[in-house]
């Protein structure tokens, strides 16, 4: 007689049956003990509740016998490229083809503003280029020789959207479908209660007539990005769920590199390289050639350099501690074992950290795949307000920190003390997932996965090189004042607040260990990008990568020196203007006194600060 093997599904089914039998037996004993008396309804409901709670504590995901990982598969690898299609696309010409920039006619320039305003990008350009436009293959040459498993799991692309521009949304779906094997893919568009008319019946009709592998789900009320993704995931038929943003374009042979590692291990998550689609011209270009995702201790997304061994293999997927956000592939099985997204997170913010920590700490692994490239439109600005009230991003961050970061959450709270008092709701469902899956500690994550993060983003920051007010030697009554200005705004000189001028201002600065200059308790930095003879100094979000934000203070000449091709902070005291100009140690307008400075650290400049950690 042949042996009978039981899958995990059968094992879990047996446990459920056993629980049911035990509960039924208890109810029966209870009834018999009453000697035929009428059983109190509340008592039976109590037993039923016990049974329900017992079942609820079992793993969330229930395996399907048709699921990919329930079967035995060939390890044979094949060449998945569709050369005929690639050759045809390479010859296509026209507006925006090959991912080239498209420029509007003078007539169109006059009418673009209304669409621009409601989308945050030049939507009229999108309307003028083909829905099926071609993209230049910008993958590393080694990608063109890669083979992938012949037997790959099926995939469902989940694309949540709210008031997305019609042609941009359709191009997202078309690009994914056109450049992937037809038998592996479906697309689910999740309408998060859009108010634009084209998002309703016109979209449904278009999809019905032209896109048989696309389904549209309309949510009755605005739910936010996170819950919209969950709504699509629950309706996915594929073995793998691929989340994409609604303003993206998939490049050549993008799908097999995402599916292959997951086919090998269902607890593997794979992210594509994210390229840039210009918000003005829709030109498609590479963002870079890879970096590992990370964060700083204010929860700003950051990147770490590739490890030496990864640099030797430019086509091979490499491990990454944190995903960038909305573009990644995960098996449906693993996604729901992890409980999906924490649906206590509001709208957006923190979800990439929550899922990344959960993946690594709960037995999974995450890679970036250089041979899968998807372009993304980074909007010029957000065109619509969020429906959530208050600091929903802060609440999200606190939920993530409280559940997953253990003692490391204190480093976040030290920088954002206001988070301590935020009400984040019930966390029991999330802590139960962590307990049930026996997830590892955050210390394990920092030691084994993000091991080099503290070198670039130390939990306890080194001391500043200098701090306090910055006073002009050309006119000692004037101080640098950023006046709480916003990004991309110029700042200048004002009367020094500490002299009792009776005015307020923003005159406290730090020359930080990052070697940038920031207003006190702000993450905006002095930035100079212009090459003009008298280039203005602007505020820009701190990126910690030096470049346009690199500054050094010379305590001997009293100069503030900018950049690798040094120019110096200069001023026109009469007009109270600040700018950088060619360094001249004899010029009094280039001399500045910092209120406090660390002489020892400044003298060790080349080995101190970020270069030291």
From TrEMBL:
**Uppermost EC category:** transferase
* Cofactor needs: Mn(2+)
Q: How does it sit in the membrane?
A: Single-pass type II membrane protein
EC number(s) from the headed UniProt entry? 2.4.1.-
Ricin B lectin domain location is 467-595
As one GO molecular function, the record gives: metal ion binding
Record InterPro entries: GalNAc-T (IPR045885), Glyco_trans_2-like (IPR001173), Nucleotide-diphossugar_trans (IPR029044), Ricin_B-like_lectins (IPR035992), Ricin_B_lectin (IPR000772)
- Among its keywords, does the record have Electron transport? no
What compartments host this protein?
Golgi apparatus membrane
Q: In which pathway does it act?
A: Protein modification; protein glycosylation
Q: Name one GO cellular component term.
A: Golgi membrane
Q: Which reaction does it catalyse?
A: L-threonyl-[protein] + UDP-N-acetyl-alpha-D-galactosamine = a 3-O-[N-acetyl-alpha-D-galactosaminyl]-L-threonyl-[protein] + UDP + H(+); L-seryl-[protein] + UDP-N-acetyl-alpha-D-galactosamine = a 3-O-[N-acetyl-alpha-D-galactosaminyl]-L-seryl-[protein] + UDP + H(+)
Spell out the family assignment given in the record's similarity comment. Answer: Belongs to the glycosyltransferase 2 family. GalNAc-T subfamily.
This protein is called what? Polypeptide N-acetylgalactosaminyltransferase
Q: Which organism is it from?
A: Daphnia pulex (Water flea)
């Amino acid at each position: 007689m042949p042996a009978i093997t039981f899958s995990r599904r059968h094992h879990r089914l047996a446990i459920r049956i056993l629980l049911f039998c035990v509960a039924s037996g208890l109810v029966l004993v209870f009834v018999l003990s009453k000697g035929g008396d009428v059983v109190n309804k509340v008592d039976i409901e109590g037993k039923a509740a016990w049974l329900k709670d017992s079942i609820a504590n079992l793993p969330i995901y229930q395996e399907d016998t048709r699921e990919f990982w329930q079967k035995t598969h060939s390890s044979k690898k094949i060449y998945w490229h569709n050369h005929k299609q690639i050759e045809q696309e390479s010859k296509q010409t026209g507006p925006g083809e090959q991912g080239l920039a498209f420029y509007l006619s003078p007539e169109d320039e006059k009418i673009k503003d209304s669409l621009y305003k409601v989308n945050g990008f030049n939507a009229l350009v999108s309307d003028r280029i083909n829905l099926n436009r071609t993209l230049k293959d910008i993958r590393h040459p080694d990608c063109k020789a890669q083979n992938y498993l012949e037997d790959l799991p099926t995939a469902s692309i989940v694309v949540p959207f709210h008031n997305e521009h019609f042609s941009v949304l359709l191009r997202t779906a078309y690009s994914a479908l056109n450049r992937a094997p037809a038998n592996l893919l479906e697309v689910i568009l999740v309408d998060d209660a859009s108010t634009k008319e084209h998002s309703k019946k016109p979209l449904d009709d278009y999809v019905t007539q032209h896109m048989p592998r696309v389904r549209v789900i309309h949510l009755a009320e605005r739910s936010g990005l996170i819950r919209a993704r969950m709504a699509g995931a629950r309706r996915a038929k594929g073995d793998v769920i691929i989340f994409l943003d609604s303003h993206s374009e998939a490049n050549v042979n993008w799908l097999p590199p995402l599916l292959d590692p997951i086919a090998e291990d269902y607890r593997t998550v794979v992210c594509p390289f994210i390229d840039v689609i210009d918000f003005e011209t829709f030109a498609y270009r590479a963002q870079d050639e890879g970096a590992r995702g990370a964060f700083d201790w204010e929860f700003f997304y950051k990147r770490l350099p590739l490890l030496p061994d990864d640099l030797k293999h430019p086509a091979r997927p490499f491990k990454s501690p944190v995903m960038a956000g909305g573009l990644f592939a995960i098996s449906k099985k693993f996604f729901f074992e992890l409980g999906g997204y924490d649906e206590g997170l509001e709208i957006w913010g923190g979800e990439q950290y929550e899922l990344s920590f959960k993946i690594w700490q709960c037995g999974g692994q995450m890679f970036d795949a250089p041979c899968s490239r998807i372009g993304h439109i980074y909007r010029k600005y957000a065109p619509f307000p969020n429906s959530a009230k208050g600091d929903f991003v802060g609440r999200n961050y606190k939920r993530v920190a409280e559940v997953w970061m253990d003692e490391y959450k204190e480093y976040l709270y030290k920088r954002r003390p206001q988070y301590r008092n935020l009400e984040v709701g019930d966390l029991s469902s999330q802590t139960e997932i962590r307990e049930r899956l026996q997830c590892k500690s955050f210390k394990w994550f920092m030691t084994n996965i993000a091991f080099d993060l503290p070198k670039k983003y130390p939990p306890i920051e080194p001391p500043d090189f200098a701090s306090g007010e910055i006073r002009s030697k050309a006119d000692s009554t004037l101080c640098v004042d950023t006046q709480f200005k916003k990004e991309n705004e110029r700042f200048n000189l004002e009367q020094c607040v500490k002299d009792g001028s009776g005015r307020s201002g923003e005159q406290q600065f730090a020359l930080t260990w990052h070697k940038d200059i920031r207003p006190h308790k702000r993450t905006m930095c002095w930035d100079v990008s212009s090459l003009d003879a008298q280039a203005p100094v602007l505020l820009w979000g701190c990126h910690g990568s030096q470049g346009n934000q690199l500054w050094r203070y010379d305590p001997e000449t009293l100069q503030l020196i900018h950049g690798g091709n040094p120019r110096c902070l200069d001023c026109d005291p009469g007009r109270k203007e600040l700018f950088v100009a060619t360094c001249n140690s004899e010029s009094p307008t280039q001399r500045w006194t910092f209120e406090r400075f660390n002489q020892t650290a400044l003298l060790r400049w080349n080995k101190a600060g970020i270069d030291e950690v």
